[in-house]
Amino acid sequence: MFGQLLVAGIVHGLIIGLAALAVTLVFGIARFPNAAAGDTMTAGAYAGLVAHKASGSLLVAGGAAVAASGLISLLGYLLVFRPLARRPVASLLVAAIGVAFLIRAALGIVFGHQQQVFQVPLAWPIEVAGIRIPPMDLTLAGVAACALAGAFGVLYLTSIGRQMRAVADDPDLARVSGIRPMRVMVTLWLLAGAAAGIAGLMLGVKTVVAPEMGWEGLLSAFAAAILGGIGSPVGAVAAGLLLGIAQEISTPYVGFTYKIALSFAVMLAVLLFRPRGLFGRVEGVR
Amino acid sequence: MVSYIVFLLVIAGIYALLAQSLCLAWGVTGLVNLGLAGFFAIGAYASATVVKWGGAPVPLGLLAALAAGAIAGFVVCVSTLRLRDDYLAIVTLGFAEAVRVVASNEIWLTGGTDGISGIPAGLPRDWGQGFHLASLAAVSAVVGAVWLALRRLVASPWGRALRAVREDQVVAAVAGKRVTRLKAEAFAISAAIAALAGALYGHYTSYIAPEIFQPLVTIYVFLAVTAGGNGRPTGATVGAYLLIAFLEATRFAAEVVPGVSALQAAALREMAVGVALILLLRFRQRGIFPELNQKAPA
After folding, report:
1. Mean pLDDT to the nearest integer, B155-176
2. What pLDDT is recorded for position B294?
3. Contacts of A261 in chain B (CB under 8 A)
4. What's the mean per-residue pLDDT of chain A?
5. How far is the C-alpha of B96 from the C-alpha of B77, rounded, in Å?
6. Domain range summary for chain B, segments of one domain joined by +
7. In 3-state terms, what secondary structure has residue B191?
8. Closest chain B residue to the Cα of A82, Cα to Cα
9. What is the predicted ipTM?
10. How far is the first Cα of chain A from the last one, in angstroms, to the nearest whole number?
11. What is the pLDDT of residue A284?
């Protein structure tokens, strides 16, 4: 039973981790909490669903999810967040809420409000040491691992990734060192969108696809980003895994419906006792 | 038709209270409250519980809502006041969701998803039209009173200090303002106003349930405050009445346009709300009633 929940928690945690990666990158570099990240996830899930219906391949679905979410994320930056860049953080945050509702309503108009599911073949679970693991979970974990490897590869092995981390550390210093903000920002939003897209696709395969799914997952993503330490990609993924496992393991005790409340409680506790999270710096009022 | 307009005016008054709440927190102090619907719900449940199950008179219920809202506001903001303000926004977002989850599941307290029905109004409902007119008078009186109080508060030295905090917390702190305390006070008062709106809503419609307190309510209020001008109570209040006019007008427009189902029309309206919010922030950030610069006292 415990092992079973652990497996479910790891898959769920990878989803939260990817979403939290999208949130924490934007929070660390563009410096505002992007409330539209959840609905970017939803867009990825729907794009994946359409591609999966047309092709039957989960790989194609993944490509479609990355492309659609990356594009939406970039458009959000170019059309909304870039013109507002010099405004107070509060304005950006409210604009992000506007973007979130825009995406969700558009998806509702195009796809309707009924829940849809990925038609994936049922398969016998593989039994490892008495724990039954559905093959789909292995596939999803593989997809997530590839996506994370890609994202961390960009962040830590490429020049643009180094520039992104430099901007996250100190935007002014990065600027005087000759780093072009525009290139960094475009990469950031594409990367964050792609991570959200994969997260949305995985969530859609695991549960159902509906216009509200991303908004409901947003709180967990924020909680993981805070727990991991704002701006820390490693922290976001680690915290996502922790939170996912904690949510699954607590289910027998507090019930299915209090998963969201658990994210909230974790978030409050972290902010009260260790606001810099597991790996982050403190973003206090100086 | 008349009763429909009276009903809308009462609802618009309740939205005006929510807008005034957001005006104080966001417009004046710079604290984004994404959990407005949560405080709205807290007030509605507090007052309904006290009046329906406790048998207290309605005014006592409203007081209970004010107290519950202020306490909830204080508790929510206290964990993040020393951090950057966007942390508070995230916490309030979580708070609203948590309130909805608790309200849906703690059936012994809130009636679960069935909600609470038959909430007494304090005015006899068998007056027919008279009941709605009396409710309109009562709600409008509350809106007017809160508007007057907020205007006084915003123009007072306390309000000036809040605006200083909004503009630059470091400067405000250097000038000897107690930043953390000011933010906590403003946020708690703002939450209490939102809770009062919830209590009035419950007593007027006689029915509350978790699905009423959707995040959509919060977005509507943000739109109203942004349109009216977020730094001035007058702007927020006018914005709320404009919002209801806009929502109802689009409802009628959707009925006239052929080939649009009710669900699609609702989604289209949500889309319009999102677009309007973005466009206003981009091009008309100061709203219809921009904040006035005050002369420093001589």
Report:
1. 89
2. 62
3. 97-98, 101-102
4. 87
5. 13
6. 2-213
7. helix
8. B282
9. 0.85
10. 48
11. 45
pLDDT at site A7: 84
Write phi, then psi, for A118 (nearest 5 degrees): -75, 130
Average of per-residue pLDDT across A128-153:
85
Q: What stretch of H or E contains A128?
A: strand A126-128
Any B CB within 8 A of A60 CB = no
Whether the CB of A283 is below 8 Å from some CB of chain B: the reply is yes
Closest chain B residue by Cα to residue A222? B90
Mean pLDDT of A118-134: 77
B263/A80 Cβ within 8 A:
no
Q: Give the range with max mean pLDDT: A122-131, B71-80, B101-110.
A: B71-80
A79 within 8 A of A232, measured Cβ to Cβ = no
Find chain A residues with C-beta within 8 A of B222's C-beta: 94, 97
Q: Please give the Cα distance from B238 to B20 (Å, whole number).
A: 10
DSSP helix/strand/coil, B103: helix
Give residue A56's region: left, alpha or beta (phi > 0; psi -120 to 50): left
Domains of chain A: 2-115+132-273 (1.10.3470)
Q: In this predicted structure, what is the pLDDT of residue A31?
A: 85
B61 with B199: CB under 8 angstroms? Answer: yes
